[in-house]
Design a protein that fits this description.
The complex is a heterodimer of chains A (about 325) and B (about 270). Chain A has about 325 residues and is of the alpha/beta class. Chain A is built from 12 helices and 14 strands. In chain A, a hairpin with a 2-residue loop joins strand 12 and strand 13. Chain B has 12 helices and no strands. Chain B is globular and about 55 Å long. The chains are: A alpha/beta (about 325), B mainly alpha (about 270). At the A-B interface, helix 2 and helix 3 of A face helix 1 and helix 5 of B.
Chain lengths: ~325, ~270
């Protein structure tokens, strides 16, 4: 059985269509990333799967339980970590976990054991008696995840878990998620607009403008781009683009002020380019394809966290 | 590590959630020292200032208490629980703006447990403030009577629940703290002033009298006064009967809880 399965999932906000028939499977035990620009539909997916928002059409199920027909059944399987903090800042770390355990109906002995366990695993034991308001952003996020794990969910949903974290804290967070999966077999579904974070997922779906444009492991996705990616900065990119395409018979894309070429033998090509257009090239960079390149290939647009429609989405959802 | 949680019955988990939510409310409040101090200082300040200010110019028409400090005291208890109850529900608006409320809404507990937990938590806070102030009763000249004070605690609790539920209802509907303050002050001040807290209905203009008669707080205050002067019906006889007061206050509690529950069902976030 799939941990998450959606069929033709759609959601409209008035005239705006946030999701356009998304079908997605997340198999059990995976750390699955939903990558896309803000406003691409990730948050809407997240809200539907976490039972907070009904779909306009289509279905979504968590371990076979339908989010609309059996929200209570789905909720019992979920651990949810929201983007905005859900901890009471005036309560200590331990009290927050304690209170969460009560909400999920855990008995006193079970709460105590579980809290000790999680504090240890998330390296929070020393801060257990501190009020959450005194913790750094990274630590508070760790408490959020510990809280989400408190009742041993089968599916952990995380909305942009590394927002506001520095790269070090983000790597720690991924390590903690892996550990949680190893020790408890939890399936993780997270939304992200950070490419580096997506790289660390077992599997990805790229969601753009309400549709899934690609899916696979990060390596599979990147392998769709043959060879390397050349990025050229030039004073007159349009003209250079025309000339490269005419002389070398290659397809060059203009991305903001730079040109971008995919080539199986990028080093050889760079020599040719240097010989032919050396005086007009300001810089030339060769790189292995990134998920950003995959996004560009699939959508024809540069990947950036923010999207125009982002603000609108927030306004509508209010 | 891989053992699974024994899933308790839905009912057990709902009650556990109510307790969890309400205790969070209380602990969180007690951690905010400024709020604790203000919540007790404000009513005491009001009591002393008005009590001393009006002093002997007050003629207790239709009341046994000729001294305004004494007459005003039950009104101050009401003031404390009304404002504490209502404003404890501001946390509902803050919870909604942050992720706190969302994380409660995705828990496998019924909506009524969320409503009950928040209302119970706020009620306990309001009740505790009323109870602390009640201890000052003998200073105001109210003779201490064990049963009377116990009954007074009961009234304070009922009023706390009713007003917290009222606050919760509006807090759920209004999405900014400023708006909530505005609405509540416009509603609460007249409700409190026209409850008999400040002046008895007996000598008031007829229009005011009507307003006082339809104000549920009036009945709560009469009940409270009766309890405080337990055994001596002097000057309280012409006020509505205790059973009517109880009926009105319990009615208000039930109506406001039902309204809150329905508000939560209609609008989840």
């Amino acid at each position: 059985m799939q941990a998450v399965e959606t069929r033709d999932l759609s959601r409209n906000f008035g005239a705006r269509r946030a999701l356009l028939g998304v079908s997605l499977e997340v198999s059990e035990g995976k750390i699955f990333g939903l990558l896309g620009p803000n406003g691409g539909g990730k948050s809407t997916m997240f809200k539907i799967i976490s039972t907070l928002l009904p779909p306009s059409a289509g279905t979504a199920a968590v371990f076979g339980r339908d989010v609309v027909a059996d929200p209570g059944g789905v909720r019992a399987l979920l651990g949810v970590v929201f983007q905005s903090p859900s901890l009471d800042k005036k309560l200590t770390v331990k009290e927050n976990l304690e209170y969460h355990g009560r909400i999920y109906g855990l008995g006193a002995a079970e709460r105590k054991g579980r809290i000790e366990d999680l504090l240890g695993r998330f390296h929070l034991t020393e801060r257990a008696k501190d009020q959450v308001g005194t913790l750094s952003g990274g630590l508070a996020r760790r408490v959020e995840i510990a809280k989400g794990m408190m009742h041993r969910p089968k599916l952990l949903l995380l909305d942009e878990p590394s927002t506001g974290l520095d790269p070090g804290a983000r790597m720690e967070l991924m390590a903690e998620l892996r550990l949680a999966r190893k020790e408890e077999g939890v399936t993780v579904l997270m939304t992200t607009h950070i490419l580096e974070e997506a790289e660390d997922c077992d599997e990805l779906a790229i969601l753009d403008r309400g549709e899934i444009v690609a899916r696979g492991t990060p390596d599979q996705l990147k392998a769709e781009i043959s060879g390397e990616v050349l990025t050229i900065e030039a004073d007159e990119p349009e003209q250079l683009q025309r000339e490269i395409e005419a002389k070398l018979g290659l397809k060059a894309e203009q991305v903001s002020s730079a040109l971008r070429l995919e080539a199986p033998k990028a080093f050889e090509l760079s020599m040719t380019l240097g010989k032919e257009f050396g005086d007009r090239i300001r810089s030339l960079r060769i790189g292995r394809p990134t998920l950003g390149d995959v996004f560009l290939r699939k959508t024809g647009r540069l990947f950036s966290g923010e999207e125009e429609s982002d603000k609108r989405e927030k306004a509508v959802q209010r | 590590m891989t053992d699974t949680i024994k899933v308790q019955g839905r009912k057990a988990s709902a009650w556990s959630a109510v307790m969890g939510l309400s205790s969070r409310e209380v602990i969180s409040f007690l951690r905010q020292r400024s709020r604790v101090i203000a919540s007790l200082a404000t009513p005491i300040m009001f009591w002393l200032m008005f009590g001393a200010g009006f002093g002997s110019s007050f003629r207790g028409a239709g009341s046994a208490q000729s001294n305004f400090l004494e007459y005003f005291f039950p009104g101050i208890l009401i003031l404390a629980v009304v404002f504490a109850g209502i404003f404890s529900t501001i946390s509902t608006i803050q919870d909604r703006q942050e992720g706190f409320l969302q994380s409660v809404l995705v828990a496998p507990i019924p909506r009524w447990a969320i409503v009950s937990g928040k209302i119970l938590g706020g009620s306990i806070l309001a009740f505790l403030q009323g109870a602390v102030l009640l201890a000052l009763g003998p200073l105001a000249g109210i003779p201490f009577h064990l049963l009377g004070f116990a009954l007074a605690l009961g009234w304070l609790f009922l009023i706390s629940v009713g007003m917290t539920a009222l606050g919760f209802y509006f807090a759920w509907k209004i999405d900014s703290v400023q708006g909530f303050h505005g609405v509540m002050n416009t509603l609460l001040m007249p409700m409190w002033l026209l409850s008999g807290a400040f002046f008895p209905a007996a000598g008031a203009f007829w229009g005011i009298k009507v307003l006082m008669m339809i104000n549920p707080l009036t009945y709560g205050l009469v009940g409270l006064r009766r309890a405080l002067y337990f055994g001596s019906s002097q000057g309280l006889a012409e006020l509505p009967a205790t059973w009517i007061c109880l009926l009105v206050v319990v009615g208000m509690v039930l109506i406001m809880i039902a309204a809150s529950a329905s508000a939560v069902r209609k609008k989840a976030l």
